[in-house]
């Protein structure tokens, strides 16, 4: 995410490049962080584990709402928003739990393996959800909560990257993790597309218990990735014990330790106005992302009258394109970063989001009436659920979807990379772990509350 200087009204803010950096801060940081060589093999293994964890999420993402709405017609878009919020809440809370566990045990392997075990269990429960005669949406909510908990175990790899990389190579090491996540955005939808022509209810593996169809096939793939992940973690990942760091941070997770770290941060000569601006900009820029990801599936089914199978196919194609565009943005930012400053890049990203709202507005020349409700497929606009079905218009899919792909594939990654870059420069040469944690908290606020608001 990037940080920017000139974004608040009349407030005069110092450009990032001119911020003073304390020599004492720089020297103390150098003393705390002894010179080390980067273990690129460990970075690659961590990136591979990140990819397998992320692809488990992206391979299921396209079919979440269509499947829920197909097997439980009492599931509303508002309930789907609640499901997304609960999943993110589980991720936020257990990210702290796994971080504490990894710190206390001096190991990332065990928390990661436990996380994969939780993911496999949630996949098994998800595959059996149709065994319930009614109210299946509540079991799906429980599954997505577990998915969020399982995904949070991978956050310990951020600290692992710090332990196995030198200060000079840290940006490149983190970029490997970012690329792994972006590749998963491409691979996940491709896996979903491979089964997009498979009808529902599909084939029964165990009569009345297990089925194989367009919605369950991705879960079978997700289940398999857990076994691969555990094997890689167990045999390929090595734990790193940073004794020097632990001697100085021994009470890090105690109340006194947290207070001490807060006091250290507050005593630093930081540009707090810019830091707060960066937090606000992260929240604002993420609102569009959370809104789109929360309502996209229900919106296209309601607006365009697409059934679950067509919705999965079209959104999988769109997300594959988004992943390719995001990889292009990341590569261009890495190789052409001197051509465009992070502040300007972030402003461009925000402008792209603003243009999206203008271009996707349902003007008469580019829109049509809402599709009538189909009780068989559950597609179309149900007037018993939405009072605006007879009066609202929807932008043509040929206009709407390409614009959304451009925003998600270009605007979102550009905003993320540029704001991260600005924020790290604003913080300067200090131990950034606590301040980066504050930025993550601002993200979690949007990810937890955003889906409920959007739905």
How would you characterize the overall build of this protein?
By secondary structure, the protein is an all-alpha fold. It is 68% helix and 3% strand. The chain contains 16 helices and four strands. It has helices spanning 23-32, 40-61, 64-71, 77-105, 109-127, 136-152, 156-164, 170-194, 217-236, 243-248, 255-267, 272-304, 308-335, 342-359, 397-427, 433-454; strands at 203-206, 210-212, 367-369, 393-395. Strands 1-2 form a two-stranded antiparallel sheet. A hairpin with a 3-residue loop joins β1 and β2 (210-212). α5 (109-127) packs antiparallel against α6 (136-152) and α12 runs antiparallel to α15. The longest helix is centred in the middle third of the chain and has 33 residues, at 272-304. The protein is globular. The chain starts with 22 loop residues before the first helix and ends with a helix. The model is unreliable at 1-33 and 243-250 (pLDDT under 50). This is Membrane transporter. Keywords: Membrane, Transmembrane, Transmembrane helix.
* Overall pLDDT score: 81
Radius of gyration: 23 Å
Listing every helix as H and every strand as E from the N terminus to the C terminus, the arrangement reads HHHHHHHHEEHHHHHHEEHH
Largest sheet: 2 strands, antiparallel
Widest beta sheet: strand line-up: 1-2
- The fraction of residues in strands falls at under 5%
* Terminal residue distance: 25 Å
Sequence stretches where pLDDT stays below 50 over 5 or more residues: 1-33, 243-250
Global geometry: globular
Number of strands: 4
Helical content, roughly?
55-70%
Count helical runs. Answer: 16
Briefly note the structural class of the backbone: mainly alpha
